[in-house]
Amino acid sequence: MVSSPHEAMHRIFQEYPGLFSRVSEALGIDIPPPTSATTLPTDLTEARPVERRVDTLLRIETEHDGPFLLAIEAQGKKDPRKTTSWPYYVSYLHNRYGLPTLLLVVCQDHTTAEWAARPISIGIRQWQTLTLNPLVAGPHNMPVITDVTEARKDLALATLAAITHADNPDVDAILKTLSAALRDTPETIADPLVELTAQGLGNRPAAQQWRNLVAVDLSFYKSFMSEEIRDEGRVQGRSEDILLVLEQRGITVPDKVRERITDCGDPETLRQWLMRAVTATSAEEIFTEG
User: Fold this and answer.
1) Which long-range contacts does 278-285 make (Cβ < 8 Å, 24+ apart)?
2) pLDDT at residue 133 above 90?
């Protein structure tokens, strides 16, 4: 199953193709900024029943150097199979489109980034017929942005930096900076960046902090995620109300009952339990209709 960080690490380039020119600058490579970019089909399957798909594929147009293809792979861990599939992607795309092709691998940990950056050579010891040198963006070379002014200068880069630094000990400061930078940004710009950040953080502890920042610092934000956060807050508050009513009435709440109350995510069910808690003679009685 594809993870949400995996999706965010390459989808951000679909939303902001110009981001690659800033990433390449951070990687120490002089690639001109694009004049336009087109999202191309990611299906690299041949007629034979061997399916191969790159995560994101862009055709980048430049003013002076002409077009090139940018294949983007989000890599969450080492995968020996990539040593054969990545050269295939590049050679296939070059053959199909007749354009220079670059491979960018986006990672969230140093070990994977170091592994992905190794050249992949095809040939024999005496002569390498083909050598693939992936570009790698990760926590080792993406900027740590903790200055709001800097983040506002390039919100897409600040978002990718936050995603790649999801495991950074300073991720709290990074996320606070990003949320502050988005605070006065139009919703049409802020919405996809907030969603991509949430996806990129996945199930890490920092994900909850980001949700809290969205709910509080970005109170203007009206996306699905923020509404979901507010619903979660209402559910949590109602669960606490039920327990408080029972405890104030001197009714013992067994662990199993407490767990069932706190695990319930249905607001209507919790509302009914709260009403019954006012008159129930035992904690278990709130679960009994009538």
Assistant:
1) 278/245, 280/246, 280/251, 281/251, 282/251, 283/246, 283/251, 283/252, 283/253, 283/254, 283/257, 284/254, 284/257
2) yes
Bridge pairing between strands 56-62 and 127-132: unpaired
Cβ-contact 147, 178 below 8 angstroms: no
Phi then psi for residue 136, to 5 deg, are -130, 125
Q: What is the mean pLDDT of residues 19-40?
A: 84
Q: What are phi and psi of 212, to 5 degrees?
A: -65, -40
Task: Say whether 105 sits in a helix, a strand or coil.
Answer: strand
E strand or H helix at 120, and its extent?
strand 120-124
The gap between the terminal CA atoms of the chain, to the nearest Å, is: 44
Reply yes or no on whether the pLDDT at 46 is more than 70. no
* pTM higher than the cut 0.90: no
